[in-house]
From TrEMBL:
<feature type="transmembrane region" description="Helical">
    <location>
        <begin position="79"/>
        <end position="100"/>
    </location>
</feature>
<feature type="transmembrane region" description="Helical">
    <location>
        <begin position="151"/>
        <end position="168"/>
    </location>
</feature>
<feature type="transmembrane region" description="Helical">
    <location>
        <begin position="354"/>
        <end position="374"/>
    </location>
</feature>
<dbReference type="InterPro" id="IPR050833">
    <property type="entry name" value="Poly_Biosynth_Transport"/>
</dbReference>
<keyword id="KW-1003">Cell membrane</keyword>
<feature type="transmembrane region" description="Helical">
    <location>
        <begin position="289"/>
        <end position="316"/>
    </location>
</feature>
<feature type="transmembrane region" description="Helical">
    <location>
        <begin position="43"/>
        <end position="67"/>
    </location>
</feature>
<keyword id="KW-1133">Transmembrane helix</keyword>
<dbReference type="Pfam" id="PF13440">
    <property type="entry name" value="Polysacc_synt_3"/>
</dbReference>
<comment type="similarity">
    <text>Belongs to the polysaccharide synthase family.</text>
</comment>
<feature type="transmembrane region" description="Helical">
    <location>
        <begin position="174"/>
        <end position="191"/>
    </location>
</feature>
<protein>
    <recommendedName>
        <fullName>Lipopolysaccharide biosynthesis protein</fullName>
    </recommendedName>
</protein>
<feature type="transmembrane region" description="Helical">
    <location>
        <begin position="322"/>
        <end position="342"/>
    </location>
</feature>
<dbReference type="GO" id="GO:0005886">
    <property type="term" value="C:plasma membrane"/>
</dbReference>
<feature type="transmembrane region" description="Helical">
    <location>
        <begin position="380"/>
        <end position="404"/>
    </location>
</feature>
<keyword id="KW-0472">Membrane</keyword>
<feature type="transmembrane region" description="Helical">
    <location>
        <begin position="444"/>
        <end position="466"/>
    </location>
</feature>
Length: 481
């Protein structure tokens, strides 16, 4: 099977996995919400925040380095990583254990300390499954990862619900997390053919660190980028405003989190396999940005258009202050979606330092704009995070045209076709909303559903008319699934 076909298969299996996980998580959340108190979810959120912060250092960028590495004779790099990653995890476990009381003081809640200490066990448990999981991704064997990634979520749901039913409170959620980590690691070893050997190479270690340090640096900066705005809003504007902003950010970033992230998992190992073949790399990249923009552009613009109705009639009037921020952040979600196509490519061709440097630039621009815009509330903060990302997206696309030796017009024409199709979708939405479906004003849910369905049809009909060639290429690719 060709690399392109394996990539398409990978996207399909990753999408299926994400769908199953979302189903399990939604059902579990609904049941647990009935059995537990809001305070229990608050405690686990604080615990996971501490753990997720430290997890940036979980593999020190070795996972990405293994995928990028073109050849690994006798699995020397894999075996070396298998020795080092549990060592990193043990260090994190010790740090978490001794820092937990201080985190409890910071959050002014003594219950946080034991929760963080127990959750930190997931560092060590998961570390033993990291290398075989990465090797499956490297070979685009995403089909084999469906069970190891979905069954643990079901295990989490069962364990958490059972313990919650018997009155264990927040600890039911903690035990669910531990169960998920154990099942994930165990199932990865069942589906993986790779088995480790006691093998360590100092030179390989240096190579992995040399590449991984840039991935780690970029991860830290990206973590700051995606969290510094929340910190500012919560600290300066208050918890209620943070609630509005978090909702707006989550919904507006659906194109980046639900489309680009899924495809990015597949494209990084795909690009890595083609890193020395510029012509194929160029072809796959252009197809990737075509497909991602074809989905992200209408999704972002659609969210912007439907936001007032969705917020008012689905979430309730109390959430209406989030609407302006949500509509501005729709552009942030779109730019982030397109920019993510660059990140995977920079990692694959051995230039993660580009990703780190551009991320630093984005963070600096955000920090410079925050003092100017925070006086306008969460709407101003939304502008302050969107402008830097727009600038960095253009910069990254320019760098890619240089690396792949393609014209910026090639990328611009792809985006222009999809924006043109979205323009017709907007025209239809405005006309249908104000004229054609005015009789459904008393039935907002039916009207909103009709607008969404017909707008999607108009968009893809416009794509078919304006850019039939790209649509046919993508259709041909997916026939191989």
């Amino acid at each position: 099977m060709s690399i392109a076909k394996k990539a398409v298969h990978g996207i399909a299996w990753v999408t299926l996995t994400a769908l199953l996980i979302r189903i399990f998580e939604t059902i579990a959340q609904l049941v647990l919400a009935r059995l537990l108190d809001p305070a229990d979810f608050g405690l686990i959120a604080i615990g996971l925040l501490a753990i997720n912060t430290m997890s940036i250092f979980r593999d020190m960028g070795f996972g990405a380095a293994l995928i990028h590495r073109k050849e690994d004779p006798d699995y020397i790099a894999a075996n070396t990583s298998f020795i080092l990653i549990p060592i990193f995890a043990t260090i994190l476990l010790v740090i978490a254990y001794f820092s937990a009381p201080y985190m409890a003081v910071f959050f002014d809640n003594s219950e946080v300390s034991p929760i963080i200490r127990v959750l930190a066990l997931t560092f060590l448990i998961s570390s033993f499954g990291t290398v075989p999981s990465i090797l499956l991704e490297k070979e685009l064997e995403f089909k084999k990862k469906v069970i190891p990634e979905t069954l643990p979520r079901l295990g989490y749901a069962i364990v958490a619900i059972l313990f919650a039913f018997y009155g264990y409170g927040v600890w039911s959620l903690v035990y669910g997390q531990i169960t998920s980590a154990v099942l994930t690691t165990a199932l990865i070893w069942i589906v993986s053919d790779w088995r480790p050997h006691l093998m360590f190479d100092k030179n390989v270690t240096k190579e992995l660190f040399k590449y991984g340090k840039h991935i780690l640096g970029a991860s830290i900066i990206i973590f700051l980028i995606t969290n510094v705005d929340d910190a500012l809003v919560g600290r300066v504007l208050g918890i209620e405003e943070l609630g509005f902003y978090t909702l707006a950010y989550t919904i507006s970033n659906l194109p980046a989190t639900q489309i680009t992230h899924l495809i990015g998992r597949v494209m990084f190992p795909t690009y890595s396999k083609l890193q020395h073949d510029i012509d194929k790399l160029k072809s796959i990249y252009l197809k990737s940005i075509t497909f991602i923009s074809m989905l992200s552009i209408p999704t972002s613009i659609g969210i912007l258009l439907i936001a007032p109705s969705f917020i008012t009639f689905i979430l309730g009037e109390k959430w209406t202050p989030a609407i302006p921020a949500l509509q501005i952040l729709c552009f942030y979600g779109l730019f982030r979606s397109i920019a993510a196509t660059s990140g995977s490519l920079f990692q694959a061709i051995g230039k993660p330092i580009v990703l780190m440097k551009t991320s630093i630039m984005q963070l600096v621009l955000m920090l410079l704009l925050f003092p100017v815009f925070y006086r306008y509330g969460i709407t101003g903060i939304s502008v302050a995070v969107t402008i830097p990302l727009f600038i960095i997206t253009l910069l990254q696309l320019h760098i890619i045209t240089t690396v792949l030796k393609i014209s910026l017009n090639d990328i611009a024409s792809i985006l222009a076709f999809n924006f043109s199709s979205a323009f017709f979708m907007v025209i239809w939405f405005v006309v249908a909303d104000s004229v054609l479906l005015s009789t459904l004003n008393e039935k907002p849910i039916i009207k909103m559903s009709s607008l969404i369905i017909t707008s999607v049809v108009i968009y893809f009909l416009s794509i078919y008319i304006l850019n039939k060639k790209s649509l046919e290429e993508l259709k041909t690719m997916f026939k191989s699934i």
